[in-house]
């Protein structure tokens, strides 16, 4: 056997130098791909969140500062998650449409300070609901929990309207109730907010990866789980059905959540539909990288960039990630 193989095709030629690899690179991340989820609370102080190293529950002032810091490295979109004080929670989550509530005040402060940053709001009841569910809970005489779909949608519409009035650019229903995109669209349009977009959590799975987030907001369900509204992790065709409905109801953008364990769902929706597609790298995905890196098992920066590249390669146009500022900073310096 001669030492020299008679190969016409040698794929390694396209990998021979950084410059050549740069020419043939198929997926490139940009800071403008990222949506930065931020937590806020009613306090003048910023509290580090134990379960999510590097994340804080921000005061209003801290929030504005963090958005400025993220914008300075090119992150142009954020999404807000409030921690609501226990005494403001109720079974019908009325605080979610209080025009002087924490989220509307944050939207106004952010739009005043950084009008060019897109403010996205989460539309769901769990931070406001004394039951910790995304919808209104009814307990049957047998003691079973029922989530009331249509009653919940009515409240979600008021919440979305409240965010639009405060200046939100995009509202993002994460509740998984049936019919909510269409009803929210109609409510916004009736009130003259036809320019406010809807980023729908289309395929949101009943995932154990949300654990650290629920700890951060104290928003875990008090009893039962979310399996009657969030999707079964085993299902793919059902995501297509949800997407068809969201599109028919007027969604502007679709979302898959979580991201890393659901790359096939991202690819399926990308190949089947034309709408812009978001993917949410959730708290558990973030924490697994952070904690493995903290223990010295993996290289945090490399795994962060690889995980985000994988999500974009799977077909996501935009990525919600707690790494947004960190990854954008890296891209600034090395991209
Ligand atoms: C709830 C909501 C959740 C997340 C975003 N919005 C948690 C849940 O559905 O229980 C999770 C985000 C994360 O884990 O990073 N409306």
Can you offer a commentary on this structure?
The protein has 335 residues and is an alpha/beta fold. It has one domain: Aldolase class I (TIM Barrel, Alpha-Beta Barrel), CATH 3.20.20.70. It is 38% helix and 18% strand. It is built from eleven helices and twelve strands. It has an eight-stranded parallel beta barrel, surrounded by nine helices. Strands 6-7 form a two-stranded antiparallel sheet. Strand 2 (47-48) and strand 3 form a beta hairpin. Helix 2 packs across helix 3 (102-113). The longest helix is centred in the middle third of the chain and has 18 residues, at 149-166. The protein starts with 17 loop residues before the first helix and ends with a helix. 45% of the residues are buried. The model has no long low-confidence stretch (mean pLDDT 96). Bound molecules: ligand PBG. Ligand PBG binds next to helix 6.
């Amino acid at each position: 056997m001669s030492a020299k193989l008679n190969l016409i095709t040698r794929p390694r030629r396209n990998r021979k130098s950084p410059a050549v690899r740069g020419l043939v690179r198929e997926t490139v991340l940009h800071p403008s791909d990222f949506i930065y989820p931020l937590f806020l609370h009613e306090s003048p102080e910023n509290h580090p969140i134990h379960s999510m190293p590097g994340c804080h529950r921000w005061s209003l002032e801290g929030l504005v500062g963090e958005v400025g810091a993220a914008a300075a490295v090119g992150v142009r979109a954020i999404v807000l998650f409030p921690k609501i004080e226990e005494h403001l929670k109720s079974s019908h989550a009325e605080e979610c449409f209080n025009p002087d509530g924490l989220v509307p005040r944050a939207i106004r402060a952010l739009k005043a300070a950084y009008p060019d940053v897109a403010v996205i709001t989460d539309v769901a009841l769990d931070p406001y609901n004394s039951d910790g569910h995304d919808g209104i809970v009814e307990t049957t005489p047998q003691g079973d929990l029922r989530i009331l779909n249509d009653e919940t949608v009515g409240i979600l519409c008021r919440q979305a309207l409240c965010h639009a009035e405060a200046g939100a650019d995009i509202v993002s229903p994460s509740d998984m109730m049936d019919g909510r995109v269409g009803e929210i669209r109609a409510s916004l349009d009736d009130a003259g907010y036809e320019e406010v977009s809807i980023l729908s959590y289309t395929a949101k799975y009943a995932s154990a990866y949300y654990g650290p987030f629920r700890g951060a907001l104290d928003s875990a369900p008090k009893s039962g789980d979310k399996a009657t509204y969030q999707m079964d992790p085993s299902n793919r065709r059902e995501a297509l059905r949800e997407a068809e409905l969201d599109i028919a109801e007027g969604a502007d953008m679709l979302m898959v959540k979580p991201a890393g364990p659901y790359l096939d769902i991202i690819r399926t929706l990308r190949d089947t539909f034309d709408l812009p597609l978001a993917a949410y790298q959730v708290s558990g995905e973030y924490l697994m990288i952070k904690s493995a890196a903290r223990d010295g098992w993996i290289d945090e920066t490399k795994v962060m960039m690889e995980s985000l590249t994988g999500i974009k390669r799977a077909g996501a146009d935009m990525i919600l990630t707690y790494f947004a500022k960190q990854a954008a900073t890296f891209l600034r310096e090395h991209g």
